[in-house]
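Dear support,

I submitted the protein below through the web form. The confirmation email said the job was done, but the results page showed an empty box. After a refresh the structure appeared. I'm attaching both so you can tell me whether what I see now is the final result or a partial one.
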Amino acid sequence: MDLRNQKITLGELWDDPRSRAVFQKRIPMLGRHPVKGAARTVTLEQLADFMTAWVPEAMVTGVLKDLKKL
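What the results page shows now:
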């Protein structure tokens, strides 16, 4: 999947069933987060920066790796 140098938005990723499945598998709590709808314009880069503060970096790295494989 072309992540456009991590500038792809979460909305674009959540709209694609393949990438949504990656998030559901790797970071399931993200899909249930109350601000999920408001975060559609957040870029993958912004999310990765934010996520490393509250989940293990290996989890974020795994998501990025899986998304690149798509």
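Response: this is the final, complete result; the empty box was a page-load delay. The chain is about 60% helix and 0% strand.
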